[in-house]
Design brief:
Helices cover about 45% and strands about 15% of the residues. The chain is built from 20 helices and 15 strands. It has a domain at about 90-110 and about 225-430: 3-Layer(aba) Sandwich (Rossmann fold), CATH 3.40.50. The chain has helices at about 15-20, 40-45, 50-60, 70-80, 80-85, 115-130, 145-155, 170-180, 195-205, 210-215, 225-240, 260-270, 285-295, 320-330, 335-345, 355-360, 370-385, 390-400, 420-430, 455-465; strands spanning about 5, 30, 90-95, 100-105, 135-140, 160-165, 185-190, 215-220, 250-255, 275-280, 295, 350, 365-370, 410-415, 450-455. The structure holds pyridoxal-5'-phosphate (PLP). The site of pyridoxal-5'-phosphate has 16 residues, from helix 12. The site of pyridoxal-5'-phosphate (PLP) has 16 residues, from helix 12.
C-alpha cells in the first residue's frame, strides 16, 4: 500500500514515511493509492473479534510496512480496558428514540480524539525506535487534541511534545488535564492570544524548513493519515455491534469540525461497509453544512467564526475536506489544485453541479444545531433516556433526529463526555456534570505551564533550549 498526495506532487510513499510528516511536500494531503475492499463474508468473520483484534485487521489493510505481529502488539497496547474503562473499548449506549450513541469517549481525556491518539502514540514510538530517530511534536490546541496527544505520548521514547494553548481560554477541566502532566517529555506553553494565533506560530516554525529539520519537528494534527485510519476501525465496530447479518444498513451521525471523523466514516463506506447515510452535524459554524446543501465551499475568516458552546467544532476551514474533494473529482490532482487556486483567489469554489451526488452516491446529508438546540437536546435526552450527553454530541443528536428511519439503526458518535464541558451542562440542566471517579482529584493537582506573550521567537527559543537534538 503506497500513499499519494491530493495535489499530485509526491512520489508514492509507505505508511511509516507519511506517518512522521504533516502536509505532503506539495501542500496536499496523503491518501492511499486505492482503498482496500472488505467483502460481506469478511465482515461476518469479524463479528467475533474484540476491539484490538478488529483494529489489527483493518489497520493491516493500510499498513504493510510493519509486520503483522508487531501491529498486533501495538493495537493491543493502545486499546486496553485500563485505558478505555472496559473490555468493549467502544460501548454502544441506546437512547429511547431510535438512536444509539457510539461511545468513543471512554479514553483517558474523555473525548474521541483518544481513539486515534492512543494508537498514534504506540506507532510513533515503534517507528522512531526502528529508525533510531527522535521527533519533537509541535502543536496548537483549543483543548481536546492537545490533551489527547499528551496522554498518548507522555513517557514515550524518542518523542517530545510542545503544545501551545490559548492562555485562559480552555475549560478548567481541560487546563487541569494538560497542565497537571509532569512528564519530562511534555511541554505546555500557554500563549496570551487566541487559538488561531497559536496555530499561526506552529505554521511559522514548521514552515521554517531549516529549523524544522534541525529540531525534527513533527505534527499530530487532524490531517495525519494514521489518525484517520485508526478512526475507520470504530465505524466497522459500530456496524458489527448494531447489526446481526450481512447487508444490513446502518446510518451514522457525526458532530464535525475539521472533517476528520466523518471522513473516516466515508472511507469505511467506500471500503464496502453497508452505511446508508453519513449525517454531518455542525454548530453555528456551518461551512460544511453549507457545502453539502449547496455545493459551494466558502470557508470563513477567524473574525466570522462564532465562539459557541460546542467549542471543539468552532472551525471554519476544515483541514481534511480536501481528501473528499479529491475523490469527488475522480482522483484528478489537477482539478483539486484548480479548486484551491480558485479558493485562494476568490474565497470560495463551486461544485454545485455535483451536489446531487453527495447524497445519492456517497450518502452525505448535513444539518445545523444552535446553542438553544444544544441545551434543549441535553435536557430532552436526560429526561427521555436518563443519559447525560455533552454539547457536541447534542449537536449530533439534534441533527440525527431528522434522519431516523424505521429498521435502520442510527448511531450518533459520542465525541466527548459531559464532564469536559460542565458549564454548558449546568446551563442546560441546572446541575454540573458528574466527574468520573478516577478524575475527581484532577482539579487539585499541581499544574505546570510556561506562559508567554504571543511571539514566535519566544516559542522558538523555548524549543531550542528544551528539544533533544538528534545525534549525527
Ligand atoms: C475534535 C472534535 C470534534 C470535531 O471532529 P473533526 O474530526 O474535527 O470533524 C467534535 N467534537 C469534539 C468533542 C471534538 O473534540
Amino acid at each position: 500500500m503506497k500513499y499519494l498526495s491530493t495535489r499530485g506532487g509526491m512520489d508514492p510513499q509507505s505508511f511509516s514515511d507519511i506517518l512522521l510528516e504533516g502536509l505532503a511536500p506539495d501542500g496536499g494531503l496523503a491518501l492511499p493509492e486505492s482503498l482496500p475492499a472488505v467483502s460481506a463474508d469478511t465482515l461476518e468473520a469479524w463479528r467475533k473479534l474484540n476491539y484490538p483484534e478488529l483494529a489489527t485487521e483493518i489497520l493491516s489493510l493500510f499498513i504493510d510496512d510493519i509486520p503483522r505481529s508487531d501491529l498486533e502488539r501495538l493495537t493491543h497496547a493502545a486499546y486496553t480496558a485500563q485505558n478505555f474503562g472496559s473490555e468493549q473499548i467502544v460501548p454502544l449506549k441506546p437512547l429511547n428514540n431510535g438512536m444509539t450513541l457510539l461511545g468513543l469517549s471512554e479514553g483517558p481525556t474523555l473525548a474521541f480524539k483518544d481513539m486515534a491518539m492512543q494508537f498514534l502514540g504506540q506507532v510513533f514510538e515503534y517507528v522512531l525506535d526502528k529508525r533510531q530517530a527522535t521527533l519533537n511534536i509541535l502543536g496548537a490546541t483549543s483543548g481536546d487534541t492537545g490533551s489527547a496527544a499528551e496522554y498518548a505520548l507522555k513517557g514515550k521514547r524518542g518523542v517530545s511534545v510542545f503544545m501551545l494553548s490559548p492562555y485562559g481560554r480552555m475549560s478548567d477541566f481541560q487546563r487541569a488535564q494538560m497542565y497537571s502532566l509532569h512528564d519530562p517529555n511534555i511541554h505546555n506553553i500557554a500563549l496570551k492570544g487566541v487559538f488561531d494565533e497559536c496555530q499561526d506560530i506552529v505554521k511559522a516554525l514548521a514552515g521554517d524548513l531549516a529549523f524544522k529539520a534541525k529540531y525534527n519537528l513533527g505534527a499530530v494534527n487532524s490531517i495525519n493519515w494514521a489518525r484517520i485510519a485508526a478512526q475507520v476501525v470504530y465505524y466497522f465496530w459500530g456496524w458489527l455491534r448494531a447489526t446481526s447479518g450481512p447487508g444490513q444498513q446502518v446510518s451514522f451521525t457525526v458532530p464535525s469540525g475539521n472533517f476528520g471523523n466523518i471522513l473516516a466514516g466515508h472511507i469505511a463506506r467506500q471500503m464496502g461497509l453497508p452505511v446508508r447515510r453519513l449525517v454531518l452535524a455542525t454548530n453555528e459554524n456551518n461551512v460544511l453544512e453549507e457545502f453539502f446543501r449547496t455545493g459551494i465551499y466558502r470557508p470563513r475568516p477567524a473574525a466570522e467564526t462564532h465562539e459557541t458552546s460546542s467549542p471543539s467544532m468552532d472551525i471554519s476551514r476544515a483541514s481534511n475536506f480536501e481528501r473528499f474533494v479529491y475523490e469527488l473529482l475522480g482522483a484528478d490532482a489537477a482539478k483539486v489544485r484548480a479548486c484551491w487556486e480558485e479558493l485562494a483567489a476568490t474565497g470560495q469554489f463551486d461544485l454545485s453541479d455535483r451536489q446531487p451526488e453527495f447524497e445519492s452516491r456517497y450518502g452525505f446529508v448535513a444539518g445545523v444545531s444552535t446553542h438553544a438546540d444544544r441545551l434543549q437536546t441535553i435536557r430532552d435526552i436526560q429526561l427521555e433516556a436518563g443519559v447525560l450527553i455533552d454539547p457536541h454530541t447534542a449537536d449530533g443528536v439534534k441533527v440525527a433526529a431528522g434522519y431516523v428511519e424505521p429498521g435502520i439503526p442510527m448511531l450518533v458518535l459520542e465525541t466527548a463526555l459531559p464532564a469536559k464541558f460542565s458549564e454548558t451542562i449546568e446551563a442546560a440542566t441546572g446541575k454540573p456534570a458528574p466527574v468520573p471517579a478516577h478524575l475527581q482529584g484532577l482539579a487539585s493537582l499541581d499544574q505546570r505551564v510556561e506562559v508567554f506573550d504571543c511571539k514566535v521567537e519566544l516559542v522558538r527559543d523555548y524549543i531550542i533550549q528544551h528539544a533533544p537534538v538528534q545525534a549525527g
